[in-house]
Design goal:
It is built from one helix and twelve strands; from the N terminus they run H-E-E-E-E-E-E-E-E-E-E-E-E. The chain is mainly β. Strand 6 and strand 7 form a beta hairpin. The chain is globular, with a radius of gyration of 19 Å. It binds copper (II) ion.
């Protein structure tokens, strides 16, 4: 079936905006970009490229204090390591368990994930109960050849992550 020139043009118009890369999306980012404060959420770190073309072999996520419950999703072909830190004060989990530690860092190592492929690294966590705040999730991306990209920059007040070269993935915390 031959499309009329108008329809073909309309089709092209629909595709064009979707192909236009928005800068932030082309970096290591997190999905969702917003979530209710204190809620449990599935955070997917999105890795759309390597380091200057080199394949990714390591994704290391730093968790700020106050994320008392975080569990990474294991990934075939990647070794998972979890570092914990002691809490200054024990907290009670929703199931009543006393927690004296929280997860401080989660590292996936292996792959490699070639530069021309895309993948996600998933963690289930409870967002801090700070409505209006931001959950910043700095990521160290290690690549073949030893290069490391630190996605860890935080925008200064009044500035936007788009202005940064290596913005840290972040989730805006909304009121519940
Ligand atoms: Cu990028």
């Amino acid at each position: 079936m031959r499309l009329s020139p108008a329809l073909a043009a309309a089709g092209a118009l629909w595709v064009l905006p979707a192909l236009a890369p928005t800068p932030a999306l082309a970096h290591v980012t997190v999905e969702p970009t917003a979530a209710p404060a204190g809620s449990y959420l599935r955070a997917a770190l999105r890795v759309p490229h390597g380091c200057n073309g080199a394949a990714t072999t390591r994704i290391s996520l730093g968790l700020p204090e106050g994320v008392t419950s975080a569990k990474p999703m294991p990934k075939p072909g990647w070794r998972l390591s979890i570092e914990r830190r002691r809490l200054s004060e024990a907290v009670r989990s929703p199931h009543g368990r006393e927690l004296e530690e929280e997860v401080a860092r989660i590292t996936w190592e292996g792959g490699p994930l070639p530069d021309d492929q895309y993948d996600e690294f998933v963690v289930m966590l409870q967002a801090p109960n700070e409505p209006g705040g931001t959950l910043t999730l700095p990521v160290l991306q290690g690549c073949e050849g030893g290069k490391v990209d630190a996605w860890a920059e935080k925008p200064a007040a009044g500035h936007h992550a788009h202005d940064l070269a290596r913005p840290a993935p972040a989730i805006r915390l909304t009121p519940r």
